[in-house]
Amino acid sequence: MLFRRALFNLFSANQDDHTKNWAFLQNDEGEWRLSPFYDITFSPSINGEHCTAFCGYGKTPPKKAVQELANKSNFNWIQAKQVIEEIVTEIQSFPIIAKDFDISKNTIKMISRYQNDLYISNKALLK
Hints:
By secondary structure, the chain is mainly α. The protein contains 5 helices and 2 strands; from the N terminus they run H-E-E-H-H-H-H. It has one domain (2-34, 41-126). Strands 1-2 form a two-stranded antiparallel sheet. The longest helix is centred in the C-terminal third of the chain and has 18 residues, at 105-122.
């Protein structure tokens, strides 16, 4: 689940992904689980750097770094690529979904353009 969230942040431009936005919950038996995903928003930074790095890379992580994250999350690379493809597909549907909300056409266009640029910068992860 953390892997999915990290890659969502990468492709969606949620670059304000600092450590206070990653939390865990403990049940009465002392078992830990990932908290619900929160503070998820389009938030590009000035330099395009994420607050939480991808194995040391603040933006455009190389495939090797993302493979390392996938391995640490118990994903093989085939599974990881499938997750990335699902995320990219969902993010690309943003302009269609956004039309149902009170979001200006200019804002939809700006966000879509930025996310498309992120896709182009990171599409090597899908190969």
